[in-house]
Amino acid sequence: MRIFTDYAGPTEETGSQFELVRTNLASIKSVLAIASVKGGTGKSTLAVNLGAALALKGRKVAIVDADLNAPSILSMLGMKPPRHLPMLEGIEPAAGPYGLRIISSEMLTGGEPPPVSFISDDSDNNNGATRHASSVDIKWTEALGRMLAQARLGALDLLIVDLAPGLDRLHALARLAPISGALLLTHTSGLASAAMRKAFEYARASRIDFVGVVENMAGFNCEECRSVRPLWPEGEVASIAAGAAVRLLGRLAFDPRLAESSDRGFLFVREHAATPTGKGLTEMAAQLETVLAARGRDGAAASTLP
Ligand SMILES: Nc1ncnc2c1ncn2[C@@H]1O[C@H](COP(=O)(O)OP(=O)(O)OP(=O)(O)O)[C@@H](O)[C@H]1O
Ligand SMILES: [Mg+2]
Predict the structure, then answer these.
(1) Beta strands in the chain (DSSP E)
(2) pTM (2 d.p.)
(3) Which parts of the chain have pLDDT scores under 50?
(4) For ligand 1, atom 8: residue with the closest CA
(5) What does the pLDDT look like over 217-236, one tens digit per residue?
(6) Is residue 268 in contact with ligand 1, taking CB distance under 6 Å?
(7) Cα–Cα–Cα angle for 189, 194, 196, nearest 5°?
């Protein structure tokens, strides 16, 4: 846990956390947050597969796993957390397939005890009765701020930040780091659509800028019947996105092989490139690159929001 306790890196005295992060990410062309209102919409799966699709085209891509309490990016890529991190001059990213570079909270402990809980800023630190005696509580915004300020990412075409569910996470990230925009992932169900409508109201109020919406698990890719079958009742994602002037970047079908690839740590977008979901991911990555290139580094100039 040196990074959060002993590491003598830059402190607030040398500038605000936002400025430290901005300086550290200065050589990165685009920073994309992947967010959702509800959990399990496929954020981490897309972070890995969109990142890999672009890396396969020769782009320099890194992923920060910002789901600090439930990180999944390393295992989705079939990687183990490096045990001995050289951190004297910052956090060295783990080297993934196709040149992908990964920063994850798992790397900071090397998978070793003591157990660490990343808690929200307003959590009551004194309410420790139910906690493990040797656990360490760290505010997650502080931890993420340090990861972003100290990661040795260098020059990149794209940095993807994979968030835990909840727009509060996106809001907190936008206060910590200059982001080019956010990708909102949603399911198609009526409940998810309603949550998305709220998300856009919230985003407008807090001036969060979405580069697009992805409707995931929109239909079931049935290999035997060679068609994509309905999975949920028809939702309203497209019309809600249009009403909020946010582009629907794509619809991805559920493909059991994609779920398997996440569990087994191989890259669906490469192994199953010719399937409808594989093609959808590759096309989405290309579209995303175009959309990000068209906007300023910090996103605001080309904002779709008023
Ligand atoms: N289109 C898809 N087809 C098949 N499986 C999918 C698809 N999208 C996501 N999954 C699977 O659904 C599960 C949840 O996906 P994932 O972990 O990426 O969601 P998440 O939004 O990151 O979740 P959390 O909110 O907990 O961070 C994973 O097992 C993943 O492999
Ligand atoms: Mg996730």
Answers:
(1) 28-36, 61-66, 94-95, 101-104, 116-119, 136-139, 156-163, 181-186, 210-222, 227-229, 248-254
(2) 0.89
(3) 1-14, 126-130, 300-306
(4) 42
(5) 988 877 777 777 777 777 68
(6) no
(7) 95
Look at residue 57 and give its three-state secondary structure.
coil
Helix axes 190-206, 167-176, angle to 10 degrees: 30
Ligand 1: atom nearest CA of 185 is: 21
How high is the pLDDT of residue 208? 77
> Which token pair is 218?
């929109």
Ligand 2 centre to CA of 42 (Å) is: 7
Residue with tokens 């020769």: 58
pLDDT at 194: 82
- For the segment(s) 15-115+135-296, the CATH number from 3.40.50.300, 3.20.20.70, 3.40.1080.10, 3.90.180.10 is 3.40.50.300
Q: Which of 67, 217, 262 maximizes ligand 1 atoms within 8 Å of its Cβ, making it the mutation to test the pocket?
A: 262
**Residues linked to residue 229 through DSSP beta bridges, in sequence order:** 220
- Determine what percent of the chain falls in helix, strand and coil, rounding each to the nearest 5: 40, 20, 40
Verify whether ligand 1 is closer than 6 Å to residue 36 (CB atom): yes
Residue ranges per domain, the chain?
Answer: 15-115+135-296
Does ligand 1 come within 6 angstroms of the Cβ of 165? Answer: yes
The ligand with the least distance to the CA atom of 45 is: 1
Q: Whose CA is nearest to atom 11 of ligand 1?
A: 259
| 186: three-class secondary structure by DSSP | strand
Residue showing tokens 């990142």: 51
**Which of 36, 37, 38, 44 to mutate for ligand 1's pocket (most ligand atoms within 8 Å of CB)?**
44
- Name the one residue in this structure whose structure tokens are 């995303």: 288
- pLDDT tens digits for 30-42? 999 999 998 999 9
Contacts for 184 with CB less than 8 Å, ≥ 6 apart: 35, 36, 37, 196, 199, 210, 212, 213, 214, 246
